[in-house]
Design brief:
elongated, single chain, 18 strands, five-stranded mixed barrel, WH-like_DNA-bd_sf, OB fold (Dihydrolipoamide Acetyltransferase, E2P), CvfB_fam, NA-bd_OB-fold, alpha+beta, 287 residues, S1 RNA-binding domain-containing protein
Length: 287
C-alpha cells in the first residue's frame, strides 16, 4: 500500500466512521467521506492511497484526475500569495502547484477557473504535489496543423511561458506560440485565449496573434481618439502631420496607426483638421 497508487482490497470491517480494508496482510481505513456508492463487508473495491495531515495512510474510492503516470488539465480553485495555486485533482484535498513552479511575475499567475496541464508527484513521506507538464511530456500529444488554418480564429490554453512569448495548446490539439509582439496584454498561465493563426510552420505548429485585425484595430483606435477629443470639448492639437513621438506619447500608437484611425474618423464625417488641430465636425461652424 503505497501513496499515489491504486489497489483492489477487500472490505474487512465496518466501523462508525468508515471501513477497514485489507490486502490479506495489512489494513487501511476507507473513511465514510471517501466512499462512493454503497459497499458492504467482504466486497472488493478499487481504491487510491494517500496520507492525511497526520501522515497516516488512507484509502479513497475517488479517482484522481491526474496520477504519477498521467497528465491532464486541472482547474485552479484557489491562489495563495505565499504558496501558489491550488487545483482540483478529483480528491477530497486539492493539489498545490507551488509558487516556485509558477511564473516569476505575479500578474501572470493563473486565476481561479484557469486550467493547468499537470501531473501528480508524491514525496518520500507520501504527500501529494502537482507539477506542470514539461515540453518533453506535452510534445507527443500535439497534432500537426494544416495550412488551411491560416488566418482562421483558434482557441487555446496557455501551458508554458518564456520571455519571448506564450505557448498554447488548442482545443484541436495544435501547439501554438504567441510572440510578445502579437499581444496587447500578456496572457496568464492557464488562461484560455482566442486569436488568429498568422503562420502555419513546417513542423506543424502555428503562430497566433491576439491583436485585432487591422480594420478592427482602426475602429478601436478611432474611438479612443474620439473619446480623447470629447474630454477636450471636441478639439485636439494633433493631426496626421503631428510628430510621431508626440503621437506615441499621447496615444501609444504608431504614426501609421494614428493616421489610419484619424482617416476613418474623417471618412465617417466625424472630425476635420484645420491649422494643426483636429475638431469635431459639429464644431466646424463655430470656427
Amino acid at each position: 500500500m503505497i501513496p499515489g497508487t491504486f489497489a483492489t482490497l477487500t472490505i474487512d470491517e465496518q466501523v462508525d466512521y468508515g471501513y477497514f480494508l485489507t490486502d490479506g496482510k495489512d489494513r487501511v481505513l476507507l473513511h465514510n467521506n471517501e466512499v462512493i456508492g454503497e459497499v458492504e463487508e467482504g466486497e472488493k473495491v478499487e481504491v487510491f492511497f494517500g496520507v492525511d495531515a497526520q501522515d497516516r495512510l488512507y484509502a479513497t474510492m475517488k479517482k484522481p484526475l491526474i496520477t504519477q503516470d498521467t497528465y491532464g488539465w486541472v482547474e485552479v480553485v484557489d491562489v495563495v500569495e505565499d504558496m501558489g495555486a491550488f487545483v482540483d485533482i478529483g480528491l477530497s484535498k486539492d493539489g498545490l502547484v507551488a509558487k516556485d513552479h509558477l511564473p516569476f511575475l505575479r500578474e501572470v499567475w493563473p486565476n481561479v477557473g484557469d486550467k493547468l496541464y499537470c501531473t501528480l508527484k508524491v514525496s518520500k513521506n507520501g504527500r501529494f504535489f502537482v507539477r506542470l507538464a514539461t515540453e518533453e511530456i506535452v510534445e507527443p500529444f500535439f497534432k500537426n496543423a494544416d495550412r488551411a488554418l491560416f488566418n482562421k480564429e483558434i482557441t487555446g490554453t496557455v501551458y508554458r511561458m518564456i520571455v519571448a512569448g506564450s505557448f498554447i495548446l488548442t482545443e484541436e490539439g495544435y501547439k501554438g506560440f504567441i510572440h510578445s509582439s502579437q499581444r496587447e496584454v500578456e496572457p496568464r498561465l492557464g488562461e484560455t485565449v482566442t486569436g488568429r493563426v498568422i503562420d502555419v510552420k513546417e513542423d506543424g505548429t502555428i503562430n497566433v496573434s491576439l491583436l485585432p485585425r487591422k480594420h478592427e484595430a482602426q475602429g478601436s483606435d478611432a474611438e479612443r481618439i474620439y473619446a480623447y477629443m470629447q474630454e477636450r470639448n471636441g478639439a485636439m492639437p494633433f493631426t496626421d502631420k503631428s510628430d510621431p513621438d508626440d503621437i506615441k506619447e499621447r496615444f501609444n500608437l504608431s504614426k501609421g496607426a494614428f493616421k489610419r484611425a484619424l482617416g476613418l474618423l474623417m471618412k465617417n464625417n466625424r472630425v476635420y483638421q484645420k491649422d494643426g488641430w483636429t475638431y469635431f465636425k459639429e464644431e466646424e461652424n463655430n470656427q
